[in-house]
Write a structure and sequence with these properties.
The protein has 260 residues and is α/β, with parallel strands linked by helices. 48% of the residues lie in helices and 17% in strands. Helix 4 crosses helix 5 and helix 5 packs across helix 6. The radius of gyration is 19 Å and the shape is globular. The protein binds 4-(N,N-dimethylamino)cinnamoyl-COA.
Length: 260
């Protein structure tokens, strides 16, 4: 029987996905990636799920990278296939019509940092460390790091991390915009869940539109992105939730969004 490396826990509309392969610091083998892809597909289709949190098991690592043992003897073709597959899984996270929060509990290196980058918001434990150490292995980031890191923190900072392979602590990651917030380890999951609950109370439709406008807009010129925003903003006015939200404000009440 295949070992289970990705666990799913549902609570009040929040799906917590835990990568659990602690003997290798939760490194991303093909099996882990496959299971992660399946779980992301599942939570995407489950209407009960409003927000997803991805974390790593244990206190040491979020994900310490792609599995070096599995890559050591790869041919170029196998490496290409592995990278294409990982890109598909990470794109499914980025394009999920629900927000995804990375709760980074420890090392987020290589593919681990790239996984956090594919999420929408990153909350980190003060004990977490970040880096793209691929250069030390004679390769480059291959799960989206050269693209998403530079878009998030800027070209200079991204290249500094990618070209030196150095590790940075959580506070440094926060200062460069790689991480949204840093908290003590014991507060990590509660902080991530607090953000998730806040988001889950809003209209899932406007949440989806907002995520899509930002993510797809970043692939476009400002002019085309602005046009795309106009379309999605217009779509908001076809929803019941827009009526509910604005009427509640005017009546000084709390809105009870329906997701319709
Ligand atoms: N893969 C496999 N095993 C790993 C691992 C990894 N990435 N990271 C850690 N482990 C394993 C260690 O080998 C060790 O196993 P045992 O010796 O106990 O059997 C166990 O986890 C505990 O690790 P350590 O003993 O090393 O623990 P320490 O506290 O001393 O050090 C560390 C923690 C995170 C600093 C260290 O383990 C470390 O430097 N790990 C490697 C981090 C790293 O370089 N990560 C980047 C991986 S490369 C591609 C697409 C994408 C990528 C590559 C190619 N294609 C185009 C195909 C992405 C690549 C990466 O992510």
């Amino acid at each position: 029987m295949t070992e289970k490396f990705v666990e799913l826990n549902m609570e009040e509309g929040i799906a917590t996905v835990t990568i659990n392969r602690q003997k290798s610091l939760n490194a991303l083998s093909q099996e882990v990636l496959e299971q992660l892809g399946q779980v992301i597909k599942y939570v995407g289709q489950d209407d009960e799920v409003r927000v997803v949190i991805i974390t790593g098991a244990g206190s040491k690592a979020f994900v310490a990278g792609a599995d070096i043992g599995a890559m050591v003897n790869m041919t170029a073709q196998e490496a290409r296939d592995y990278s294409i597959f990982a890109h598909k899984v990470f794109e499914s996270i980025e394009q999920l019509p629900k927000p995804v929060i990375a709760a980074v509990n420890g090392y987020a290196l290589g593919g681990g940092n790239e996984l956090a980058l594919a999420c929408d918001i990153r909350v980190a434990s003060s004990t977490a460390n970040f880096g793209q150490p691929e250069i030390t292995l004679g390769i480059i980031p291959g799960f989206g790091g050269t693209q998403r890191l530079s878009r998030l923190v800027g070209k200079g900072r991204a290249l500094e991390l990618i070209l030196t392979g150095k590790m940075i602590d959580a506070k440094t990651a926060e200062a460069m915009g790689l991480v949204n917030v840093v908290v003590p380890p014991e507060e990590l999951m509660n902080t991530a869940k607090g953000i998730a609950k806040k988001i889950a109370a809003f209209s899932p439709l406007s949440i989806t539109f907002a995520k899509e406008a930002v993510n797809r807009g970043l692939q476009m010129t400002l002019k085309l992105g602005s046009k795309y925003e106009i379309e999605l903003w217009t779509d908001c006015f076809t929803t019941e939730d827009q009526d509910i939200g604005m009427a509640a404000f005017l009546n000084k009440q709390k809105p009870a969004f329906k997701g319709a």
